[in-house]
Amino acid sequence: MLGSALEVHSMPLKGYAGKVLYVDLTKQKYLVEELPEHLAKSYVGGSGLAAYLLWNLINANIDPLRPENPLIIATGPATGALAPSSGRFAIISKSPLTNMWAESHSGGAFGPQVKYAGYDIIVITGKASKPTSLIVDDSSITFHNSATLWGLNTRDTVNELRSSFGKDYHVMCIGPAGEKLVKFASIMVDYYRAAGRTGLGALMGSKNLKAVAVRGSRDVEVHDPDKYLEVIEDILWRNTEGPWALPAQLSLGRYGTSNLVTAMNAIGRLPTKNHWTGYWELADRISGEELLKYRVSRGSCFSCMIMCKHITKTGDGRYEGALSGGPEYETIAALGSNLLISNMEAILYMNYLCNLYGLDTISTGKVVSYVFECYERGILSKDELGGLNPVWGDEESAIELIKLIAERRGIGDILAEGVLRTSEIIGRGSDIYALHVKGLEVSAQDPRGHKSVGCTWAISVRGADHLRSLTTVDELGYRDIAAERFGHDKVDDVCDRLSEKYKGMIVKDQEDLFALVDSVIMCKYGTMWPPMYYFDFIAKLLPPLTGIKEFGDVKNLRTIAERIANLKRCFNLREGVGKESEKLPKRFTEEPMPTGPSKGQVCDLEPMLEEYYRERGWDYGTGLPYVETLERLELHYVVNTLKKKYNLPRHKPWQ
Amino acid sequence: MGLQSKHLVVDSRLCTGCGLCELICSFTKFKVFNPRKSLIRINYSYELGFLEGTIICTQCGKCLAACPTGAIHIVNDVVRIDHSTCTGCLTCVAVCPNNALVVVDGMPYKCDLCGGNPQCVRFCVRGALNAS
Question: Which tens digit of pLDDT belongs to each residue from A205-216?
Answer without folding.
Answer: 999 999 999 999
